[in-house]
């Protein structure tokens, strides 16, 4: 499935959303300059790397979980992720096509030891060809788990085509079940549409469905209600400490809600018993709720860093490898795809990109500087 690039094969978006560039520091020109500055023009060094096929780094970690951002566009404007006017639009011809994504998935699974693939954004449902992406990837990597992380808006209309294409799991981002709080946090009054998407995923048999909730001061008091709703509706809820990955760069350590504070708040309504992690590489620590079997997960990315067990590699919507959400290094695979490189060469560049992965995000280190590009631009 070696595909030459054609502009006609680019992504098409279904909602006609217009993104306004106001010339701020997150402008398209600065985005492109930062990408050029950080993307190496030659293959990353493999000096000292053992001759193993997988995506090992200098600290002995092996990546088995691939996240693929398919777009920077989103139907919401969550305050911890997107600026109010949206991110600068990526030109259609700069996005990976469905065939290019599937080829990278094939290389990752066959040559690099990847066992799980999750499609992210932005919002992946903003790609009109998402079912094609999933279908081609399922054909390219039979048996590999394929999932999406979505805000759920529009999922009810597209779930059947995605499941038929080979989608196996869905994670839905939901920070509150209070409609007013939801509208304030996301700058959009779309909670009923999210609920419809969750119901559709259940009806399609994609269970247990996971919910991801970012911890925010304004929704902390509603955390017990969200957990109660998740249990009642057969969802597995995971709270995530807010990380400094927002496009507006307003994150402050003093304002974030740490896991310990959340546990205190949840403890007012539930008895929580620590259950730990089933998988050492899993980001969520689990707690039994009222003795089980229901659980709640907490991803304490900031206060209980799990960088030492990280097993992820990321591809941005433009086709660059990001070894870490907090690293500005990007290794361009799109140029190789469109320049006639064979699979072995692409795999070699990918191995080099991961060999140079940093030890951790360094949030607590003196002089910490967040990455130039926000999570919405590079995928979660």
- Tell how many strands the DSSP assignment holds: 14
Order of helices and strands: HEEEHEHEHEHHEHEHEEEEEEHHH
Query: Which regions have little confidence, pLDDT < 50, spanning 5+ residues?
Result: 1-40
Please tell me the overall pLDDT.
84
Task: Output the radius of gyration.
Answer: 20 Å
End-to-end distance? 27 Å
Task: Determine the number of helices (DSSP H or I, runs of at least 4 residues).
Answer: 11
Described by the principal axes of the CA atoms, the overall outline is globular
The major β-sheet equals: 12 strands, mixed
- Which structural class best describes the helix and strand composition? alpha/beta
Helix content: 25-40%
Q: What fraction of the residues are assigned to beta strands by DSSP?
A: 15-25%
Strand order of the biggest β-sheet:
9-10-11-8-7-6-5-4-3-12-13-14
How does this model look, in words?
With about 375 residues, this protein is of the alpha/beta class. It is built from eleven helices and 14 strands. The strands form two sheets. It has a twelve-stranded mixed beta sheet. A two-stranded antiparallel ribbon has the order 1-2. Helix 2 links the parallel strand 3 (about 65-70) and strand 4. The longest helix has 14 residues, at about 100-110. The model is unreliable at about 1-40 (pLDDT under 50).
